[in-house]
Design brief:
The protein has 271 residues and is mostly helical. The protein has helices at 9-31, 45-56, 59-92, 97-109, 112-122, 129-151, 156-164, 169-180, 182-203, 214-224, 227-255, 260-270. It contains twelve helices and no strands. Keywords: Cell membrane, Membrane, Transmembrane, Transmembrane helix, Transport.
């Protein structure tokens, strides 16, 4: 008797997307469409997607998304650099491990509503510092965990070989540990990319003197009561976050194809 093959993941994903769109349309049509035909808080998916298409040809939206992406990239790179330095310091001085873990937990747990006004007070008017800080905080915890996991993925035999040839701790880090850390590091980079963009966008809700960015566009649409525009910006922001994840995934496949079979396991450990 032949066993039935399970559906392909891509087919399951497409089916799930169709179900979500149908449910979205039904909720919007029967729950949020006004008697005069105008849309309420939840517009139909075709209306929202049509607005996305219109926004894509508007330079103001590209400028806003670019400004948010720039702040997200700054916070993202700072978080990566800090995690790498911290990881190396932990290897050189193991007692620092508890400090590194606590720092990651603090970065993940610190209330955004509490830290954002403080950052705004400490930064000049018109600065995007709060967006950069929130992007950094969103990325720091998975980066620290990914770097620490990766740097310790080296087998004792590899370290013994380095030491047998006269190599010290720094040589072991440079020649063995950093290479072994690539799978965990790439997984952390992928998880952090969308988190950085969403963190930077959230920071624009608190920024003072900043008039561009995806978050500011969302606020302006909210004040205008343009629900379709709000949903279009939410879809665009989600698409940009997904593109960031996909770009790093493609880069990882090109730079380190041998990590493909371990990426899922490492990503699971980071969540």
């Amino acid at each position: 008797m032949m066993r039935r093959q399970p559906p392909a993941p891509a087919l399951l994903g497409a089916g799930g997307l169709v179900v979500i769109l149908v449910l979205w349309h039904l909720v919007a049509t029967f729950g949020f469409t006004r008697p005069n035909g105008s849309y309420g808080a939840v517009p139909p998916p075709l209306a929202a997607l049509g607005r996305v298409g219109a926004d894509l040809v508007d330079p103001a939206y590209w400028s806003g998304i670019g400004a948010t992406a720039g702040a997200a990239l700054t916070g993202y790179l700072l978080a990566v650099a800090a995690a790498l330095v911290l990881g190396v310091l932990v290897l050189l001085a193991p007692p620092l491990e508890s400090f590194a873990n606590q720092l990651g937990v603090v970065a993940a747990c610190i209330p955004i509503a509490a830290i954002s006004p403080i950052v705004v007070l400490l930064s000049p008017t018109g600065s995007r510092a709060v967006s950069v800080v929130l992007a950094l905080l969103a990325v720091e915890f998975p980066m620290i965990i990914g770097v620490l996991l990766g740097l310790r993925a080296t087998s004792p035999a590899q370290l013994d070989l380095v030491h047998a040839y006269g190599g010290g701790t720094l040589t072991a880090i440079r020649k063995v540990r950093l290479i072994a850390a690539i799978p965990a590091l790439l997984s952390a980079l992928k998880i952090g990319a969308p988190a950085a963009f969403l963190g930077a966008m959230t920071g624009e809700f608190f920024a003072v003197g900043v008039d561009s960015g995806a978050g500011r566009l969302l606020i302006s649409q909210q004040y205008a009561g343009d629900y379709v525009g709000m949903w279009a910006i939410a879809i665009l922001a989600s698409a940009v976050s997904a593109l960031g994840y996909g770009a790093i995934a493609l880069l990882a496949r090109w730079l380190a194809p041998w990590t493909a079979h371990t990426a899922g396991q490492t990503a699971g450990a980071l969540r």
